[in-house]
């Protein structure tokens, strides 16, 4: 069996790697953690600076040059749900994972994401929502 762990608001997978994942692994589960985009070890997101998209000029090769910045530490529920879905797709492709025995464990905001993901994705066979934040 495999458990995909989703951390809470502004959390990092490093916390899960230290605190929860080893316990699940000791109990015989494959425990998979990840960082949401813009958090922890993940990449930032490139955002065009205000007004730059309108100023952008197309180059001869079809590329565009504009001023942008990399943003980090952004809480965006839509991004996070997509990241959780991507992590689930990754888990389903791991060779030794029994795809009929995959669950999601989420804490805090990640608990809400775990519930939302499990509600829409039939591949998720179990869900744990620890102190879940939901609406």
Give short descriptive properties of this protein.
four-stranded parallel sheet; 5 helices; 135 residues; alpha/beta; two-stranded antiparallel ribbon; elongated
Report a brief summary of the structure:
The protein has 135 residues and is of the alpha/beta class. The protein has helices at residues 13-19, 21-26, 52-55, 77-92, 109-120; strands spanning 2-6, 30-33, 45-48, 57-58, 64-65, 68-71, 102-107, 126-130. 33% of the residues lie in helices and 24% in strands.
Describe this structure in words.
The strands form 3 sheets. The protein has a 4-stranded parallel sheet with strand order 2-1-7-8, with helices on both faces. α4 (77-92) crosses α5 (109-120). Helices cover 33% and strands 24% of the residues. The protein is elongated, with a radius of gyration of 18 Å. The chain is α/β, with parallel strands linked by helices.
